[in-house]
Amino acid sequence: MVRLSPALLLVIALGGFVGGLARYWLSGVVGRAVGETFPWGTMAVNVSGALCIGVLAALLPPGDGQGLTVSLWAALVVGVLGSYTTVSSFSLQTLALLREGERRRAAANVILSVALCLGAAALGYASAGALTGGVA
Questions:
Q1: From which residue to which does any coiled coil extend (predicted)?
Q2: pTM for the whole structure
């Protein structure tokens, strides 16, 4: 079990700060580029976050629950990616599409998000494993 030290909580908080800013920036850039009639910005954030978490899962295998690996996992996965990716925005945007009578778009958002995020996580994991000679 990982002990939640003040230092570990600080790296998680700093990671969350970075992830939140990155999410706001990327979703805005994508939304302005392609329009906001469909939540492409949130999808871009969640798919890129899934890719990153797949890479990190391959590169930072669980160890003894101590040391640098735990700190990196806490900072990058719990902090940065936990704040960067957003199931809450995905849920709210899907609900908004449903409330507006856009059932097909809502279904497309759910199906595409799950399929693309799962695929991105698997791709990230396999790619990092292949590059490092690990098992993927």
A1: none
A2: 0.88
